[in-house]
Amino acid sequence: MKQKTSDLLNVIVDKVLPFGVFVTLDNQRRGYIKRRHMSWAGDIDPRDLVEPGQAIKAMVLETQPGAETMLLSHRDVLPDPWLAFVRDHLPGDTITGTVKTLGPDAGWIQTRPGINGLIPLDELSLEPVEKPDDLVWPGDVIEAVIT
User: Fold this and answer.
1) Where are the beta strands (DSSP E) in 39-146?
2) At 117, phi and psi to the nearest 5?
3) Sign of dihedral through CA atoms 32, 36, 37, 42?
4) What are all long-range contacts of 108-113, with beta carbons under 8 Å and residues at least 24 apart?
């Protein structure tokens, strides 16, 4: 049976891999932080965020009785970027973002780490288009209006 808790911990980074980080807690117990739990922008390689020996804070996501390693989150101890975004922006504001991914009928842009927005195909242009990549590609910087 999995148990959830929200204990804030000081941990030391042991090993950094592209998919996550192994850490040691104060009580010498081992922990693991998945890549998506390292930052609000889950697509960042953990090797670009931390290094072995570094002290960071983490929060317990799951513990399992008898398991040697606990699942932790570093992201959950960082400020939520959405709180600042909604404080600073209103519907109708123009923002700049980078196209991250495209689907058959929409595009996703990132305005800052952890803040992604959806632009439906029919709102990408004043003129009709068949697919998003007729107008934009991942990596393009575009302006959008918050609706």
Assistant:
1) 55-62, 69-73, 94-102, 106-112, 115-120, 141-145
2) -130, 150
3) positive
4) 109/142, 109/144, 110/41, 111/85, 112/81, 112/85, 113/39, 113/40, 113/41, 113/44, 113/81
In 3D space, the residue among 77, 64, 66, 70 whose CA is nearest the CA of residue 30 turns out to be: 70
- Return the amino acid letter for 146: I
Is 4 within 8 Å of 61 (Cβ atoms)? yes
* Both tokens assigned to 136: 């934009």
Closest among 80, 87, 72 to 40, alpha carbons compared: 80
Taking only the tens place, the pLDDT of each residue in 73-128 is 999 999 999 999 999 999 999 999 999 999 999 999 999 888 999 999 999 888 88
pTM (two decimals): 0.74
Alpha carbon distance 63, 2 (integer Å): 6
